[in-house]
Structure formats: structure tokens, C-alpha cells
TrEMBL record:
Residues 3-114 form the Response regulatory domain. It comes from Lentzea tibetensis. Keywords: DNA-binding, Phosphoprotein, Transcription, Transcription regulation, Two-component regulatory system. The modification 4-aspartylphosphate is found at D52. This is Response regulator transcription factor. Residues 124-222 bind DNA.
Length: 226
């Protein structure tokens, strides 16, 4: 049985989320603050963490940073916390749900992310575009010999782009085809594209690899001709 750690300082929220997740077939552990959550992860890593950003003591962003992409994370955020949501995604969070939220939708998102995480790992192979190289098996990326610091979501998106050059994809297609999400906030794609441009483009304001196709979405253009 897959284990989900629910971290929220509101006992009502924790109890409601626990009941829905247990009904969906998950084993659920609860934590009311960041310190308790980190101790729980160290003791027995869960398969996924549902993490409120507004926590007493160690806040959710710091918890997410310390998890360091070792476990999938779904953030719980308030409606006006856009900057915190973006910061969480940049730290490697997989998705977020805005309060007040539907517990049933949260359970569906948890299931979608866990199915994605449990897919069979791809065969070891390398994707290249000029000086940009991705080792899909090792999940590492380099640009002109220098290692890139990519989150799991950024790596998956870049690998998809390089594997599908010259084709335009809208944000909904990228959500589903890259991360297996049939629902979710499409601004997640926008955030990850912006972050990738900052890391792989010479000038992120005038990208050569990841182009915006107005009215459609994004297209990857190879820099090499090989």
C-alpha cells in the first residue's frame, strides 16, 4: 500500500484529506508542522507528500527544499500565494492545489502523480542537441560540458522537447504527455518553460531553442543539424 504524508497545521484539513486518501486506498500519516514532517520522512520516506506551505516553524517551502526532489510533493496554497506556488514549483514540487479545495480532486491528483512516479524507468539513452546533452537513464544534463541543475519536472519537460523537435504543443498537451496529468493548472507549464530558458538559452528573453508559438503553446527548435 502506498504511503502519503499529509502536512498541515489545520486539524480539520488533515482529517478530511486523510479520510479521502484512505478511501482511495492509501496509507496516510499526518504531521502538523515542518519539523514533524521532516522527522517522519527521515524515519520512513513516504511515496508522496501533501504539503501546506503556511506552516508554523519550518515553513512548507523550506520543507520542500530539504526534501530535494526525493519524494513527489503536492502543495496546498492559499488563493493569493502565487509567488509561493511558483517558488515551490521551482524547488521541485510536482503540483499544487489552491485552498479551499476539493478533497476528491486532491486524491485524484495524488493518484495521477503516483502513477507517473511508478512508471517503468526508460532505457538508458542519451539525447543531444549541440552542446546540450541529456542522459535519460541517469537523469543528468549538461550544457557545453557544465552540469545543469534541473528539477525532475524540468528534466522531463526538456527531454520531451528534445525528443519532439519542430512540433508545437499547447500547455494542456504538455501537462498530459510529459507528466501524465489530465488536469491541473496550465501555468505550471509556463513556470517550467521559463526556468528551462533561464538555464539553457544564451538569452532567455530571446530564446533560440524553446520558442513561443502564439495562440498555440511552445515548440523546440534544435540548434544543431546533426
Amino acid at each position: 500500500m502506498e504511503r502519503v504524508l499529509v502536512v498541515d497545521d489545520d486539524t480539520t484539513v488533515r482529517d478530511v484529506v486523510r479520510r479521502y486518501l484512505e478511501h482511495a486506498g492509501y496509507e496516510v500519516e499526518l504531521a502538523g508542522d515542518g519539523e514533524h514532517a521532516l522527522r517522519s520522512v527521515r524515519r520512513q520516506p513516504p511515496d508522496l507528500v501533501v504539503l501546506d506551505l503556511m506552516l508554523p516553524g519550518i515553513d512548507g517551502l523550506e520543507v520542500c527544499r530539504r526534501l530535494n526532489n526525493t519524494v513527489p510533493v503536492v502543495m496546498l496554497t492559499a488563493l493569493g500565494e502565487e509567488e509561493d506556488r511558483i517558488a515551490g514549483l521551482q524547488l521541485g514540487a510536482d503540483d499544487y492545489v489552491t485552498k479551499p479545495f476539493s478533497p476528491r480532486e486532491l486524491a485524484l491528483r495524488v493518484g495521477s502523480i503516483l502513477r507517473r512516479a511508478n512508471r517503468k524507468a526508460p532505457e538508458v539513452r542519451e539525447l543531444t542537441d549541440g552542446g546540450l546533452k541529456l542522459d535519460v537513464g541517469a537523469h543528468t544534463a549538461t550544457l557545453d560540458g557544465h552540469e545543469l541543475s534541473l528539477t525532475t519536472r524540468e528534466f522531463d519537460l526538456l527531454a520531451f522537447f528534445i525528443s519532439n523537435p519542430g512540433k508545437a504543443f499547447n500547455r494542456a498537451e504538455l501537462l498530459e504527455r510529459v507528466w501524465g496529468w489530465q488536469f491541473g493548472d496550465q501555468s505550471t507549464v509556463t513556470v517550467h518553460v521559463r526556468r528551462l530558458r533561464e538555464k539553457i538559452e544564451n538569452d532567455a528573453a530571446h530564446p533560440m531553442r524553446i520558442s513561443t508559438v502564439w495562440g498555440v503553446g511552445y515548440r523546440y527548435d534544435r540548434c544543431s543539424t546533426d
